[in-house]
Design a protein that fits this description.
Elements: E1 33-41, H1 47-51, H2 58-65, E2 70-73, E3 76-78, E4 86-89, H3 96-102, H4 125-137, H5 146-150, H6 152-173, E5 180-181, E6 184-187, E7 198-202, H7 220-232, E8 239-243, H8 261-270, E9 273-278, E10 281-282, H9 316-323, H10 327-341, E11 349-352, H11 379-382, E12 393-398, H12 403-411, E13 415-418, E14 424-430, E15 443-445, E16 449-450, E17 458-464, E18 470-481, E19 484-499, E20 501-507, E21 517-525, E22 528-529, H13 531-538, E23 551-552, E24 555-558, E25 561-563
Helix pairs in contact: 2-6, 3-6, 7-8
Length: about 575
């Protein structure tokens, strides 16, 4: 393989020239590098995180992301080995009002707040879930909380006050060119325990005046319409809505086949990305019914009504419905809608994040993670959730580290995901031949699309290891050919002994110029120890937890490139 020179940031002579006043030092037009981030992090301002003992604020979460130390439990302090470049704290918008009111001395004596006050003793997360969470977000038509039924005006004020408090802490953490703190929150629809959540990420200080929550906007269309309406009244307001945990979606929330074209266009405007990996499992793909596929067995967390089940417990119809909200299936379904309407409402790029509920964004290393927020500092509790994992991170190819540039790269889908390691990945395509030595014109970056090709496109896949050698690269292809949707996993490079940097070129030998298609790259490391094995070995208690001592094959996923004839 040829040297992987593009990932090695070489400061050229022209980059030493003074940058324009409105750019970061060292800025060079069209010269991009990788910035690492996490767009799914919770602090004590999320009710579920608070209930399970998180006390760190958004400000403290951002300080941790920049390299600070955070105390999680007695004698348990953690710190990132490598700080993040950008992050968004995305606390659950559904309880902004409740957390603000019940921690206010003027309201804390209200009986409804008892479970959240020192007077009642700080109860466990299960009590918080029973009292507040489950009755709220698991209903198809959720009702306001009891306290808001008493005084809706006070709740409205509290909700907006909490949102302003978060904005203030985010702005204080933002340091252009050094660290980007993006405004955001989570819309947490969980009807009948099906996860249809979205993280809302804003481009700038122009944000929605009122945080959009599931209680008042109980479906994705209502969410997009609220974003549209509120952003129209705010100068420069621009947002992305990023679905996550689609592995727990139970086949809901992506009814693109029955939507009108107007709704499809609205979806496509806001949902340009999807979170493929986080602490509650991988959402890439689910093997077909009755035919297990090793490629789809990574960090699998099967759910129906929030309960893990075996494939044998589902009917084929149920199973196919479950598969339909996984990322690969969504990408393929988008081709089907495109062929009928000319609109692809699922032209989505791929990111990873942690969904961390301990205010420790980016804390995704298997050898350091101590279990989710439900088990930090307690191995017995941590091991009750063996199916969870540290989550992933997102890599962005951008020219500089500022809010507008990072957001624009996210919007353009020039992004990739990893399961935690900082594996760098780039996928490019061209109608012309590509080589690893020379950059030619006419290159389509990942996240882009190609049209009107007579011959199969050429691809270049580049990958740089983190700390573990790379073992294989696969190209995943989906297409609509002769009225049939199909998916393929194609091995394009393998080296069992491992390699550190790889550049390969590949031309699709089975290209149909009439068939809409997508391709994305998946890069796999050599196997290493999973977090559970590290954890039980440190405690010398692996024998107490069958199944804990195991390995994991960490990976990265590029965003797709589409062919839309």
């Amino acid at each position: 393989m040829k040297p992987f020179t593009f990932l090695i940031f070489i400061v050229l002579a022209n980059s030493l020239l003074a940058a324009e006043d409105d750019h970061c030092p060292g800025y060079v037009k069209d010269q991009k590098q990788v910035y690492w981030g996490d767009l799914h992090v919770h602090s004590a301002y999320s009710l579920d995180a608070w209930g399970y003992g998180t006390i760190s604020t958004p400000a403290e979460a951002y300080a941790f992301a920049k390299g600070g130390t955070l105390n999680l439990a007695e004698e348990t302090a953690v710190r990132l080995d490598r700080p993040l470049d950008f992050m968004a704290v995305t606390d659950h918008a559904e309880w902004f009002d409740l957390l603000y009111i019940c921690t206010d001395p003027g309201w804390s004596d209200d009986p409804y707040c008892n479970i959240m006050t020192d007077k009642a003793g700080r109860l466990t997360g299960s009590a918080v879930f029973t009292e507040y969470v489950i009755p709220t977000i698991t209903q198809a038509n959720p009702e306001p909380t009891e306290i808001c039924l008493k005084d809706q005006a006070a709740c409205d004020t509290a909700r907006q006050s909490q949102w302003r408090r978060i904005q203030e802490q985010t702005n204080a953490a933002n340091s252009p060119c050094e660290f980007t703190a993006l405004h955001g929150y989570e819309w947490s629809a969980t009807p009948d325990y099906s996860h249809n959540h979205r993280n809302i990420i804003f481009r700038s200080n122009a944000v929605t005046r009122d945080p959009i929550d599931y209680l008042r906007y109980p479906n994705p269309l209502a969410l997009w319409q609220a974003l549209e309406k509120q952003c129209q009244s705010e100068t420069g307001c621009e947002a992305l809505a990023i679905p996550h945990n689609t592995n727990m979606g139970d086949g809901k929330s992506f009814d693109v086949e029955t939507e009108s074209d107007d709704v499809r266009l609205l979806r496509a405007r806001y949902e340009k990305l999807v979170e493929i990996h986080q602490e509650k499992g991988s959402s890439e793909c689910l093997y077909t019914f009755g035919s297990p596929d090793e490629d789809c067995s990574f960090q699998t967390y099967l759910t129906l009504n929030s309960k893990p089940k075996q494939a044998s417990e589902f009917t084929e119809t149920e199973w196919q419905k479950m598969r339909s909200t996984y990322v690969r299936a969504l990408l393929t379904r988008g081709l089907g809608v495109y062929s009928e309407s000319g609109i692809n409402p699922l032209q989505i790029g791929i990111i990873g994040s942690t969904d961390n509920h301990a205010a420790t964004g980016g804390f995704a290393d298997e050898d350091q993670w101590l279990g989710s927020v439900f088990g930090i500092g307690d191995i017995d509790r941590a091991m009750t959730r063996l199916h969870w994992n540290p989550g992933g991170i997102v890599g962005v190819w951008a020219e500089e580290n500022t809010r507008s540039v990072i957001f624009d790269a996210l919007k353009a889908r020039e992004v990739f995901a990893t399961s935690g390691p900082r594996i760098q990945v780039k996928l490019e395509a061209s109608a012309n031949s590509l080589s690893c030595e020379v950059n030619s014109g006419g290159i389509t970056p990942m996240g882009g699309e190609m049209t009107k090709l007579a011959d199969g496109p050429s691809f270049r896949v580049q990958a740089l290891y983190d700390s573990t050698p790379l073992e294989s690269i696969e190209v995943i292809k989906g297409e609509l050919r002769n009225g049939q949707l199909r998916e393929q996993t194609i091995g394009v490079w393998q080296k069992p002994s491992g390699d550190l940097d790889v550049c390969i070129t590949w031309k699709d030998p089975d290209f149909d110029s009439k068939a809409p298609a997508f391709w994305y790259a998946r890069v796999l490391e050599a196997p290493t120890l999973r977090w559970s094995a590290h954890h039980c070995r440190r405690e010398n208690r692996c024998g107490d937890f069958p199944g804990a001592e195991t390995t994991i094959q960490e990976r990265a996923w590029s965003s797709p490139i589409w062919y839309l004839p």
